[in-house]
């Protein structure tokens, strides 16, 4: 059988698997409802829609773990919607508990139905896009690109590393042990430019570490690989000293760690994806609440007790469904963005000093309108798509799913010194929090890293020589 015939047969199996996964998810929900819950779920469409969306994402996780064309990015997207947004909302609403103080201003059964129906429709389109992007495509072998020159990269990376140390010294070494909430108050606009610089120095050090790790993994000379491996370890250790659970956002730390893991271990095998899923699950329950405690108080060890986890789950920190519900309500009351939210996200790399009237992200707009004390709320991709195009945003979600599958494909390919490969590392590592949103806030983070990586790669790339 030819290569094209093999690929065509594989694509037919993927299409069948998508239909089977959707049918299995809905069928499992109906069976569970009939055998265990005595028809309680199907008595209200909200639970049918929400439960169906959860089951679709749950079965998708299993399929992406066992399928060789799926990877870590696809699992992260499915994991967030299944366990970060939909399952907590299913539990909270089924017991009549809404642990979201500002939700009481707008919550109604009709709003819950609309939000859950949106989650069901968008989940179908999300995984249709991922399955479509997973299809094999017969292509001739790709032309290898020029790598990075170790001779050029070493002085550039060392100079960049010592420059970041000087910047941290100027900001103040007490930043290491200052809780993030206090940093935002003491180093804000009233404190001059130190807060803005502190947020961006870590991005520079992360970009330099990623380039050093790339050379350590891919340089053809063993001696160079050893040198750059030590340089990567020193840079990464320094990064996590200055950017730690006390003074930085949890999603930023986890994104850094995940990108480094993908650089050295792309997580393509079924076993690697299986254990990564369980690590994510355990981290959500055990580690994530602990990181939350660290960043909110200067007396961390007094708060590390069973009360920390009880406070975390009882306070509704899984606010993904809440934010999507508020997005649906906002669109219903004030109209749609009609694409302006996407334009703002695409231009988020422009500094506010250059663009003083730069709009804030969707989560902040909605939370400020609701009068929430915390304006840094999430706005998952489903909510972003709905705010821009109502249910027609499903087409945008399909494109997003296709892009996620392509990121997995890039991470399965041979590493290359291209911006697309580095973008796959950065975006793939942060996919859990790109899915969580708000999109504009996360794209600003990604844009800044990619600009720094592009500059470093351009300086360090090997020069091509013409054959004589």
Give the fraction of residues assigned to helices. Answer: over 70%
How much of the residues is beta strand, in percent?
under 5%
Tally of separate helices: 20
Structural class category: mainly alpha
Spell out the helices and strands N to C.
Answer: HHHHHHHHHHHHHHHHHHHH
- Say how many strands there are: 0
How many structural domains in the coordinates? 2
Strand count, sense and barrel status of the largest sheet are: none
Give the termini distance in whole angstroms.
41 Å
Overall radius of gyration? 23 Å
Calculate the mean pLDDT score and round it: 77
What overall form do the CA principal axes indicate? Answer: globular
**Low-pLDDT segments:** 138-145, 298-306
Q: Can you put this structure into words, describing what you see?
A:
Helices cover 71% and strands 0% of the residues. It is mainly α. It has two domains: 3-134, no CATH class; 147-468, no CATH class. It comes from Leisingera caerulea (Phaeobacter caeruleus). This is O-antigen polysaccharide polymerase Wzy. Keywords: Membrane, Transmembrane, Transmembrane helix.
């Amino acid at each position: 059988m030819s290569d094209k015939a093999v690929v065509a047969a594989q694509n037919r199996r993927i299409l069948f698997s998508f239909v089977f996964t959707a049918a299995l998810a809905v069928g499992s929900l109906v069976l569970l409802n009939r055998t265990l819950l005595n028809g309680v779920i199907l008595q209200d469409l909200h639970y049918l829609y929400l439960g169906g969306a959860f089951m679709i994402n749950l079965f998708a996780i299993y399929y992406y773990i066992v399928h060789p064309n799926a990877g870590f990015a696809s699992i992260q997207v499915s994991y967030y919607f299944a366990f970060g947004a939909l399952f907590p909302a299913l539990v909270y609403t089924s017991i009549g508990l809404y642990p979201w103080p500002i939700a009481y201003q707008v919550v109604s059964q009709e709003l819950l139905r609309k939000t859950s129906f949106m989650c069901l429709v968008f989940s179908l389109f999300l995984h249709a896009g991922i399955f479509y992007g997973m299809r094999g495509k017969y292509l001739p072998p790709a032309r290898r690109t020029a790598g990075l020159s170790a001779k050029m990269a070493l002085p550039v990376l060392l100079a960049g590393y010592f420059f970041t140390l000087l910047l941290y010294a100027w900001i103040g070494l007490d930043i290491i042990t200052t809780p993030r909430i206090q940093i935002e108050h003491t180093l804000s606009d009233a404190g001059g430019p130190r807060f803005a610089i502190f947020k961006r120095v870590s991005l520079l050090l992360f970009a330099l570490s990623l380039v050093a790790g790339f050379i350590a993994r891919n340089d053809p000379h063993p001696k160079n690989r050893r040198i750059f491996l030590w340089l990567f370890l020193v840079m990464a250790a320094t990064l996590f000293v200055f950017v730690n659970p006390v003074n930085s956002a949890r999603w930023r730390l986890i994104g850094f760690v995940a990108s480094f893991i993908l650089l050295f271990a792309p997580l393509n095998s079924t076993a690697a994806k299986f254990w990564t899923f369980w690590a994510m699950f355990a981290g959500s329950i055990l580690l994530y609440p602990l990181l939350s405690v660290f960043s909110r108080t200067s007396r961390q060890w007094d708060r590390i007790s069973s009360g920390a986890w009880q406070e975390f789950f009882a306070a509704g920190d899984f606010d993904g469904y809440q934010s999507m519900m508020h997005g649906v309500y906002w669109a219903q009351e004030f109209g749609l963005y009609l694409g302006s939210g996407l334009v703002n996200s695409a231009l988020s790399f422009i500094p506010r000093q250059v663009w003083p009237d730069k709009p804030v992200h969707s989560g902040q707009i909605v939370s400020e309108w609701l009068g929430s004390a915390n304006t840094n709320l999430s706005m998952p991709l489903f909510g972003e798509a709905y705010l821009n195009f109502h249910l027609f945003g499903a087409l945008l979600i399909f494109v997003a799913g296709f892009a996620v599958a392509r990121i997995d494909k890039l991470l399965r390919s041979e590493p290359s010194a291209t911006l697309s490969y580095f973008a796959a590392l950065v975006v793939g590592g942060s996919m859990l929090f790109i899915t969580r949103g708000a999109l504009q806030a996360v794209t600003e983070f990604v844009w800044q890293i990619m600009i720094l990586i592009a500059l470093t790669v351009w300086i360090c790339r090997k020069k091509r020589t013409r054959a004589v």
